[in-house]
Design goal:
Layout: H1 13-51, H2 55-69, H3 73-84, H4 91-107
Helix pairs in contact: 1-2, 1-3, 2-3, 2-4
Length: about 110
Amino acid sequence: MTTFRVPRPSPDGIRDGAAIARLERENEQLRQAVDSHARVDQAIGVLVAVHRIVPATGFEVLREVSQHANIKLHAVAEAVIGWALGESLPQAVGRELDAALQRHSRAGNDSR
């Protein structure tokens, strides 16, 4: 059995409008978060495939690149995805990516 919620009329239409606006903002933020998360997952997949590392290490590498290059994680992910599609990496991302991969390779964190 399905129940339907009928919205209750509010004596103050402004509150309803404010609530709708707040929910629309939250909805947009959630959509952006889901899209960003998907891009990060795709970039991790690129690193896993190209560098033969485990996904957890791929995420750590992206995170380190983001922190050391002072670039948002989703922007680093976009650059890595673009690189996989034939674009060149921004110099800072390429430099930090190489360094992070070397650190993890020396630490032995890339074993399966």
